[in-house]
Amino acid sequence: MSFTADRLLLFGATGDLAQRMLLPSLCALHADKLVPDDLEIVGTARQPFDDAGYRNFAREALEKFMPPERRGSMATFLNRLTYQPLDANDIAGYAALAEKVGQPSQGLAIFLSTAPNLFEPTIAGLTAGGLAGSTTRIGLEKPLGTSLETSREINDAVARAFPEDRTFRIDHYLGKETVQNLLALRFANIMFEPLWNAAHIDHVQITVAETVGLEGRVGFYDGAGALRDMVQNHMLQLLALVAMEPPANFNATAIRDEKVKVLRTLRQVTPDETVTGQYRAGAIGGQPVPGYDEELGKDSDTETFVAIKAHLDNWRWKGVPFYLRTGKRLPERRTEIVVQFRNVPHSIFAGKGAQTVPNQLLISLQPHEDIRLSLMAKVPGLDRDGIRLRSVPLDIAMDDAFAGPTKRIAYERLLLDLIEGDQTLFVRRDEVEAQWEWIDGIRASWAGNGVTPKNYTAGSWGPSAAIALTERGGVTWHE
Ligand code: BG6
User: How many Cα atoms occupy the beta-carbon half-sphere of 318 within 13 Å?
Assistant: First the structure.
């Protein structure tokens, strides 16, 4: 049902995500008059705040996490906030919550940013409190389970109260501008699509490198690891957008239909197609940093790095490896997609002593948004000793190309889409399940083969086995 919500109910309203992302995003949307004038935001969590106490809490968060130049409308934004304390496990508490939310005139959007074990009781409470009617939609923040089975349990519990068209599963990578730009690059230009296949592409690399370590998320991260924290969701969504067939329209059904088809073609990897690692003490940017075991305070077998050689068993991608790599405490923060084209079938320059280097498309998401296509060009000169060719970049720095429009963080986009009810950038249940199925297979192969993470020094690009993983196929990681 289509409606623009005029009430937003935030679960986890005092959590880290709310402070760093949700409140600043909502404040920015408010400042730019993008949310409905009458939108009221109700926060809920265990802390015993009243409205004034929560507004103070929110102001402190905004002062900490929002750039000063974007805080202009903070005071009027805070007036939109109210708060209701709630123990999400206490079903009796939802009546008071429902009273606080009141009767929206159009509809209610709920955002659940809570521990996964609270999903089921929260859904039951929302139902009991009459907060799950046909004019309510729900946004779910990860992690949505730790395996196919547990994600199904959560999805079943949600589905008992909210049909799929009112369920919005968040993967914040889909809210990033460059990720959406991938669709424009592929489908608003004629020149890539005819080459976008196994006949012309040698391999694809997707890297999500982070310099941060545990960041105090001890309880959560050690139970997840890099495979489930980053590959299961963000990296597989990037892979799906790179590899999917052209959708017929830019809408939620068409795009998600194509993504899920790709995710279902992921071939189960063999143990020698994955490498896992865990960082040891080292240095990043010249600063010493402790090892994972020291940060955790105990030994652990959780991987903080994973590299995978993935394959898609379909016509378009037969024989084209997709190398995925992600890790904590790597030398730099960098998210990028590299599409490595094949060499020209025949070089007319070979007899003139010149070599052609295959073209490469680099889509850089973080820390800078850039698109770089490497092309061969002739080095100027009279060529008395033969022709010289060199690879030169055709570079689009998105910041320069689009200096005007405000840069928005992913949650601004996603919260607005949740309020307005556009599911295009949210993950459908069948996608999540296809993702988990592949991830569960990898974990089972690790367990079956006694795979434990290899050590790597913080500030390096992971265990040396990750280099061997690509080099066996004649490929070097882009660095
Ligand atoms: C989160 C992971 O989903 O994404 C974190 O749980 C990770 O471990 C984060 O640091 C990375 O997001 P971004 O937007 O900083 O690349």
Answer: 4
Ligand 1 atom with least separation from CA of 335 = 16
CATH code reported for the domain at 174-471: 3.30.360.10
CATH topology of domain 7-170: Rossmann fold (3.40.50)
Cα–Cα dist 373/471, whole Å: 23
* Distance, C-alpha 209 to centroid of its chain: 13
pLDDT single digits (tens) 306-364: 999 999 999 999 999 999 999 999 999 999 999 999 999 999 999 999 999 999 999 99
Ligand 1-lining residues (CB < 6 angstroms): 210, 229, 335, 366
Phi then psi for residue 388, to 5 deg, are: -115, 135
Q: Which two tokens stand for residue 237?
A: 């969504």
SS3 state at 394: strand
| C-alpha–C-alpha distance, residues 118 and 15, integer Å | 14
pLDDT at 1 over 80: no
Catalytic residue among 234, 311, 346, 478: 234
Determine the atom of ligand 1 nearest the C-alpha atom of 224: 6
200 included as an active-site residue = no
Q: Whose CA is nearest to atom 6 of ligand 1?
A: 229
Nearest to 280, CA basis, from 269, 260, 295:
295
Domain ranges of the chain: 7-170, 174-471
**Best mutation site among 142, 229, 333, 411 for ligand 1, i.e. most ligand atoms within 8 A of its Cβ?**
229
Contact 324, 308 (CB under 8 A): yes
